[in-house]
Amino acid sequence: MKSVMIVDDETAMREILKIMLKDYKVVEASNGREAVEKYEKEKPDIVLMDIMMPVMGGIDAIREIKKINPKAKIIAITAYAGSKGEKAMEAGVDRILKKPFTRKEVIRAIEELTRSG
């Protein structure tokens, strides 16, 4: 079973994503710092990373995870497009999903990334 780490400071968003990802093993983190720590322990196949979070934001967490594993598959999830998306791409995300998104969009992005290596 593929594993997905959901990183979002909003409990409701993590719950929605857990329901969408019922066919995956799910690991949760509520901020970037927690995400980096859990990534190192759990080594999930995919990371769904919110960009705007307290403690450590998504961009910094993406950079830290890429230091641990340069081949980490990360999908940024954000309500903000534009410069935040550009910064996420520079930090190394593989995809950006703009909120609100559908279950189909999330699953398609995960499947495409896990197929590609």
From TrEMBL:
Residues 3-114 form the Response regulatory domain. It holds the Pfam family Response_reg. SUPFAM superfamilies: CheY-like. Keywords: Phosphoprotein. It comes from the Archaea. GO terms for biological process: phosphorelay signal transduction system. InterPro entries: CheY-like_superfamily, Sig_transdc_resp-reg_receiver, ST_Response_Regulator. The modification 4-aspartylphosphate is found at residue 50. This is Response regulator. It comes from Archaeoglobus fulgidus.
